[in-house]
Structures are given as structure tokens and as C-alpha cells.
Amino acid sequence: MRDVFVVSGGVSKFAKARPDRTFQPMVKEAYDYVLQDIGLEFKQAAELIEGSTASYFSDHFGRQLMGGAMTTDYLGLCPKHNKRIEGGGATGGLNFQAGWESVASGRFDIVLTYGWETMSHVNTWKGNEFIALASDVSFDYPVGGFYSGYYAMMVTRHMKEYGTTVEQLGLVSVKNHNNAFYNPYAQKRMKINIEDVRNSEMVAWPLTMLDICTMSDGAAAVLFASEEGMKKLEKATGNTIKPTKVVGVGGGMDAMRMADRPHGKVPLLPHENAEDYKNLKYPGVHSFRSGRNASIEAYKMAGIADPINELDFIELHDAYTSSEIQTYEDMGLCKYGEGGGFVESGAPFMPGLDYGYKLPEQGKIPVNPSGGLIACGHPVGATGLMQAVFGHWQCQGTIDKHFGDKTLQIKDCNRGAIHSHAGTGTYVTVSILEKGF
């Protein structure tokens, strides 16, 4: 395989609705940002980009098949290679890895990945129905299988097994919303406290409206290149590129129905001990086996033995506050069962920010410094790419340039992870980004 670099990224504004845009020009907002950030002209890009991958979760939201073909045409990239990537909530993360593969394999030197969703085109209840079609429509869906119900079930089990509290869930929401206050691309920029979370409308106990991500319209794009591709881009623009290197990728998949997932031993990360889990019924409904597998693969490829001490940040798929806590454990930031205590310690909060609570280990490893899905929004086909763009800017040290505010810039940032998740852990991807200059 060849080394692969992220050379540029761009996002559109994420919003509850974008009535000013159809999906093609919304994607072009992100694409234009990609080009402008490295000084590449539109005609130059059309010549140099050799292929692209498109991601959107549902044909139903836009009532349009072949959206990838239409958008590639709109971006002026026809008749070059393009393919669509789809995998539920992990669609954007899978697309990111598809772009990486296209360059790592040697097939292309310069590849564009882009994704979007226009979820505002239907009522919220209809959108939840469409999303629920990503569950097993023969078994789960007929008995009321909406995802908020699934995650409520999982977190109540986590609470019973490990003593996780609603206040700990609330802290995740406080962290992510307060981070997003400084992110101009985020859908929900507001400062809140635990009481606000608990007093918001109940959806499926114990999850309230502020425990759950929002439906969104938005787009994101990432430009990949090999070393040779970077030389071509620098020659075309006359500018020096400051890339992020993709040093690890991992993926996992599990049975659609949690009842079909066999119990067994916990797959261990290098820093873990089997004795810690000798009495744990794994994965149960409290853990994502696919997330653990994706983490193991990505860490191994990147040479990471102890993630909490070797990563500077994680952009994590927090569709629910509860799933963020579950994923702390899957990614090895703490032991299984300790996710609630981990957020309570303050370890995943940004250093230096005042969240209104005593956080003894604040800033140890910031998780979702951008605000995550809960606050930025979750336009499904774009979400994993949004995480990659924000991760790229963190490793570049250019948050101030892009956000107009340096508050969310992690000091001396070198390496971070992006995590994308579908269904109840049906697909999960983990990718590791590292400063490449």
C-alpha cells in the first residue's frame, strides 16, 4: 500500500433545513471550500482529480436515485470514475475509507470523497421511519423498532449493569453543546447544563431531546492524494500543502439483531488484561462488538498501544449521549463499565473551557471538540466526512482559520481518531489521522 494524505477538506453549514439549496449545490459549497483552501482553481481540479466517491444514506429523503451521478456531473467531474457508498449511520466513515483505499491501492493519485443528506424534505416522524428501515424490517421494525427505543434499551441495561446515571448522560450533552458554541458550522450552538438536558422533552426514557442528535441538511468533502498527487497539486497551485496522513483504518460489522450476536470473550486491546473482564457477558446489549473490532484494526495499523495516552482527540459518533459512553469503552479509553465515570472525570472535555462543573481530569483526551453529532447535526451521508474535515483541521492546527476562533484548537495536536457508527453497531469504522508535515 502507498501512503495516503488528506490534503484538504470542506463542509457546508449544517442546519435543520436548507431550503435555499438542492443537494448538488449544497455539496458544491463543501467542494468549493476544499478547492479554495489549497488555492486550486475549478478547471485545474477537474483535470487533476481522477475519481470520486459519493455517500448519502437514503434515497427516500430526496426521492432521487443516482444522486451521486447527478452531483458528480454538477461538480464538473464527468466522465471520470465515481461510485456510491452507503452503510447506515456509518455511511460517511465508510466513504472516507473508500477514498483512502482508492489512493492506497495505487489506482488513483488524487481522489475526492463527498457526502450529503437532505433530511428536511420529510416530516420528522417520516424521517424516523426511513431511518428505522435500517433495522431488520422482518423482526425489529414491526414491533416499534425506532432507534431511540433501541438505544434507550441499551442504556438502561448499561445503567443496571454498571450504575451509569442520567446525570452522566447529561454531561455528554453539556460537553458537546458547549463545544459547538464555538463552531460556526454547527446546527445547535448553545450553552446548557445537566438540568436543561433532563428537563427537555422525554423521547424514550432515559433519553431526552437533548440526549439525541438532530436530523439535518448538510454536506462535507475530503480530498485525498498520494505523495505524487500532492506534488501535482503543489505544482498546479504554487502553494505548499500541509497534509494530514491517514496512518490507520479499521472496520467492523455485526448482526443486525442484537439477539443474534453470540457471547464470548472480550477482544483485548494491547493495554488491557483479560482478568478485568472474566465475569463480563460480552457483548450483551451494552457494548458494540463491531466498534471494538474497528478500534483494534485501526490501532494496530497506526501502532497505537494505549489510545488514551497516544491520541490527542477523537471525533466520535454520538448519535446518543449513551452511545458516546458505550463507545468510550469499545475504543479502550476506559474499561467496560467505566464509561459513565470517565465522562464524570472530565477526561473527554476540552481543556480550559468552563462547563460549570468540577472536572478533575478535564482535557485528558478531548472527545468531540467540534460538538459531535448531537450539536453539529447528523446529515447522515456527510457526518463521517465532517468528522474527518474537523480532524484534519485539528492536526493542521488551523481551527482558528476555519472557525474564526481558536477556542476549540487542541494545543500541539498531532494525532486523532474519527469514529463512525451505523444501526446498533451494525457497521463501525475507525480511522487515525496524523499531522503529515
TrEMBL record:
Biological processes per GO annotation: lipid transport
Tagged with keyword Acyltransferase: yes
GO MF annotation, one: lipid binding
Domain Thiolase N-terminal intervals: 5-228
E.C. no: 2.3.1.176
Domain Thiolase C-terminal: 288-435
CDD domains the record matches: SCP-x_thiolase
Keyword set, alphabetical order: Acyltransferase, Lipid transport, Lipid-binding, Transferase, Transport
The keyword Transferase belongs to this UniProt entry's keyword annotation: yes
Annotated protein name in UniProt: propanoyl-CoA C-acyltransferase
